[in-house]
Automatic annotation (TrEMBL):
Organism of provenance: Erythroxylum novogranatense
Top-rank taxon, per record: Eukaryota
Gene3D superfamilies: Severin, Villin headpiece domain
Protein name: HP domain-containing protein
UniProt keyword terms in alphabetical order: Actin capping, Repeat
Biased composition (Low complexity): 764-807
Length: 903
């Protein structure tokens, strides 16, 4: 909540009480509030102050303060804007993050407030009303950079301004030309069309032509001729190497400096940066090259903070870095993920006090506005978003086999096993499919690998595209338990791999049966969402917030914690009935337990007795994935909308409890397993800088197949999800009102290769089906992956199947491949029975068919890479003839291909 005293500029009064953007301009050394009609219009001769206020679903409001400096703003006004930013932060309770923005070098966060773009205006802002004099339309040339947040810059109207790397917009009185440099990306071209739409509506009243021009297009084309005539005639654009796409420099050395009260900088000598270096009564500068941060301890004074900011601003000006480096000013406990990522260690601390203070402030704010609110309630999204009364199938995994579990037992899971869950539910005019690979925390690697492969094969074998998800025990999303409705999770395991492991290690088999003593924690919210989880049979497993069932062999106790509710007690009775209706329980309340109860648990011991406090849920975040040559990076997309789901991209939506990997139809990722790899890599890089677990659930969602539990994070327009073409073609169709690309279903556009099917629509392989007919294939036709072993003691050495999913870098061998040179005129493909089927295809050498090839082949059936080998090389690699190979069971074929990196 803001605290505006008499010492605070009156222009700030009332600020930060509503979500959204507020803007002030420095005019005649005074702050003047800019009306909303002028938001996004920045004059190059001024300095501005911008406040972004966010009210999350839970927790205190968040503030970002930006001061924007036009390229012609004088130094006095620029310094005043900086000082006012600090003053506004202080008035808001010193809980804002401050950013310095320079015209033409704005941060993507700042640009995201003014979609699709900001186009700085020449001149100086005036708050006084004036007459607008009509003038001849000025022809303008702009460059557009960025594939999500677009930076627009006006350049001289001359041929020499054009290059092959950027997208240019030529704005004339009657026509807007879009010139796409041959090295520009599809995404950048599509975003430039959004800028064109903005110019068309705001400068032309919606009445003008829009003409796309391709770099290198023949001059004989009428549109091209008209474009070049504006420049006095055609002339080729030189290929200036200095203006071509430059390679990123190596990561610069990160340096930390202590800023003294006298404004002096002293380097902090330390080989490793850790949170403990930062002292709360000091200010520091972290210099990371293009990013410079000023960290201000919560016990530092306002004068120290102001001095620190001035010192750093002067430093970047003196070093000539004022237009190449982004400055961010952070108060203690408000560190951004980017800042924290530069430190080797950053403790994960739940700021309960800060959270509770924030809840009280927000409640008081609403009360000031006339709402009778004592405190804001904890809000959890209780909507399942899909029909939870669909059809459930569960398979238990035994390495290369998957056994369909009878309906009566499909809600019983074991911690030493892995399972594949298929959930079929009514969607939009058809049945939709959701698959889970559930990995017990005591399961062995072989079963984890098998579960991912089985799940992927099932998802690819059904008609249409399914959503798949990897789930670790104890990190199940709420939706997982909702579709089960009732779930029981027992200790031990039934799989051969688990039994073999505990036998070799001499571990006692704890697999549950009704003759053994057991302790169950009962949890849930209703009879349609309740679970019984077997826990260690010790007192420390108890928690006052839950109810428990203790089976001693001769007796059964039901224990009710002091903080449990009547709903919990009802669920306790229901679960007891489901586990064994013949048990006659002895009801015990916390604090009145008999000695036999404690003796069965090995004696009385401490356990949690206070109400569990979960920190406030942050708003979801969207990231663009950039992965090539083993290098994995993500870039956050701020203030995201559905339009940011660009068909050429791979994006990750992180809602802090689970992540969604969204795969565009025109992206390089073509398999579910590849997407799971990317999700796992994301969790690995996010773990050091935020409170996130390696075992968080990972969903894979494909464009055109978005389920409601994904789309509810957006203001979803289904018509946008059903368009044809790449992102540039789609935006151009909308801009020109062309219906050709609109309302085209892409539901089945992710084609899987033809394969033989069973009566259930799955490939026939080595599968046990309990006499219920053929079931599923245990392996999929995509690269393999593996699980993170740091959290689980049972992760032993196994086949390389799926290894990269859990521990290694992403494998991109089958995606994003460049056009290959032809090596022959024909290749040999084989049918599933091993007979020859000559097709007009190609033969390629083994090294080009490998998943990790540096010169990979395109336009082949990636499920049958071996079919493109010549007979001699096939026999050399597989040590058998083709007919022998195709006579093997499918799972055996796939294992051999995996060993050669052909699968």
């Amino acid at each position: 909540m803001s605290h505006f005293s008499n010492d605070v500029d009156t222009a700030f009064h009332g600020s930060g009480t509503k979500p959204g953007v507020e803007i002030w301009c420095v005019e005649n050394l005074q702050l003047v509030r800019v009306p909303k009609s002028m938001h996004g219009k920045f004059y190059a001769g001024n300095a501005y102050l911008v406040l972004k206020t966010i009210f999350p679903k839970c927790g205190p409001p968040r503030y970002d303060v930006h001061y924007w400096l036009g390229k012609y703003a004088n130094e006095v006004e620029s310094v005043l804007a900086s000082d006012k930013a600090l003053e506004l932060d202080s008035a808001l309770g010193s809980c804002a993050v401050q950013y310095r923005e320079v015209q033409g070098q704005e941060t993507e966060k700042f640009l995201s407030y003014f979609k699709p773009c900001i186009i700085p205006i020449e001149g100086v802002y005036s708050s006084l009303p004036g007459n607008v004099h009509s003038k001849a339309y000025k022809v303008s040339l702009y460059t557009c950079r960025g594939d999500h947040a677009v930076s627009v810059k006006e350049v001289p109207f001359a041929r020499s301004s054009l290059n092959h790397d950027e997208v240019f917009i030529l704005d004339t009185a009657s026509n807007i030309f879009v010139f796409s440099g041959c090295n520009s990306s599809i995404q950048e071209r599509a975003k430039a069309l959004e800028v064109v739409q903005y110019i068309k509506e705001h400068k032309h009243g919606g009445n003008c032509e829009v003409t796309p021009i391709e770099d290198g297009k023949l001059v004989g084309d009428a549109d091209v001729g008209e474009f070049w005539s504006m420049f006095g005639g055609y002339a080729p654009i030189p290929r200036d190497l200095s203006s071509s796409v430059q390679k990123q420099h190596e990561n610069p050395s990160v340096r930390l400096f202590w800023i003294t009260a006298q404004g002096k900088l002293f380097p902090c000598e330390s080989n490793l940066l850790g949170r403990e270096i930062l002292e709360s009564n000091k200010c520091y500068m972290l210099d990371a090259g293009s990013d410079i941060f000023v960290w201000m301890g919560e016990n530092s004074s306002i004068s120290e903070r102001k001095s620190s900011i001035s010192v750093v601003e002067n430093l970047v000006r003196e070093q000539g870095r004022s237009t190449t480096s982004h400055l961010t000013f952070l108060a203690e406990r408000l560190e951004t993920s980017t800042f924290r990522s530069y430190f080797e260690s950053w403790p994960q601390v739940v700021e309960t006090k800060l959270y509770e203070e924030g809840r009280g402030k927000v409640a008081a704010m609403f009360k000031q506005q006339g709402y009778d609110v004592k405190e804001l309630p904890d809000e959890k999204d209780s909507q399942p978003h899909i029909n939870c009364r669909g059809k459930l199938k569960v398979w238990q995994v035994n390495g290369d086999e998957a056994t369909l579990i009878p309906v009566v037992d499909q809600t019983k899971l074991f911690t030493g096993d892995c399972y594949v869950v298929q959930y079929i539910y009514p969607g939009d005019g058809r049945d939709d499919n959701l698959f889970y690979a559930w990995l017990g925390h005591e399961s062995v690697m072989e079963d984890r690998v098998g579960a991912i492969s089985h799940m992927s094969a099932m998802a690819e074998s059904i008609k249409g595209n399914a959503v798949v998800a990897q789930v670790f025990q104890d990190k199940e999303p709420r939706l997982f338990f909702l579709i089960f409705q009732t779930a029981m999770i027992f200790k031990g395991g039934l799989s051969k791999g688990y039994k073999k492991y505990i036998s070799e290690k001499g571990i006692v088999d704890e697999t549950y049966n009704e003759e053994k003593m057991a302790l169950f924690r009962v949890q849930g919210t209703s009879s349609e969402n309740m679970q019984a989880i077997q826990v260690d049979q010790v007192s420390a497993s108890l928690n006052s917030s839950y109810c428990y069932i203790l089976r001693t062999g001769a007796s059964t106790f039901t224990w009710m914690g002091n903080l449990s509710s009547s709903i919990d007690h009802d669920l306790l009775d229901r679960m007891l009935e489901l586990i064994n209706p013949t048990w006659q329980p002895i009801s015990v309340r916390e604090g009145s337990e008999p000695d036999i109860f404690w003796n069965t648990l090995g004696g009385k011991a401490d356990y949690p007795r206070e109400k569990e406090i979960t920190g406030f849920t942050e708003d979801p975040r969207l990231f663009q994935v950039m992965s090539s040559d083993g290098d994995f990076k993500v870039k956050e997309i701020f203030n995201f909308t559905q339009d940011d789901l660009t068909t050429e991209d791979v994006l990750i939506l992180d809602n802090h409890e689970e992540i969604y990997v969204w795969i565009g139809q025109h992206s390089n990722i073509k398999s579910k397993q590849q997407a799971l790899i990317l999700g796992q890599k994301f969790l690995q890089i996010e773990f050091p800088v935020k409170n996130i677990s390696f075992t968080n659930p990972i969903y894979v969602v494909t464009e055109g197949q978005e389920p409601p539990f994904f789309t509810h994070f957006f203001e979803w327009d289904s018509s946008k999800a059903n368009m044809h073409g790449n992102s540039f073609e789609r935006k151009l169709a909308i801009l020109k009102g062309n219906k050709k690309f609109q309302e085209v279903s892409v539901r089945n556009s992710w084609k899987t290769s033809p394969r033989s099917s069973t009566q259930d629509g799955f490939r026939s392989m080595s599968v046990v089906s309990n006499g219920s007919g053929s079931s599923i294939s245990p392996m999929s036709s995509v690269p393999s992956t593996n699980s993170n072993s740091s959290q689980n003691h049972l992760l032993t050495s196994s086949t390389p199947t799926l290894r990269t999913l859990f521990t290694g870098p992403p494998n991109h061998g089958s995606s994003g491949l460049p056009t290959a040179r032809e090596s022959s005129q024909f290749a040999r493909s084989l049918q599933d029975d091993g007979t020859d089927a000559t097709v007009n295809s190609l033969i390629y050498p083994f090294e080009r068919l490998r998943m990790d090839s540096k010169d990979p082949v395109t336009n082949i059936d990636v499920t049958k890479r071996e079919a493109y080998l010549c007979d001699q090389e096939f026999e050399e690699k597989f040590r058998m003839r083709r007919k022998e190979f195709y006579g093997l069971p499918k799972w055996r074929q796939n294992k051999l291909k995996l060993s050669l990196n052909l699968f």
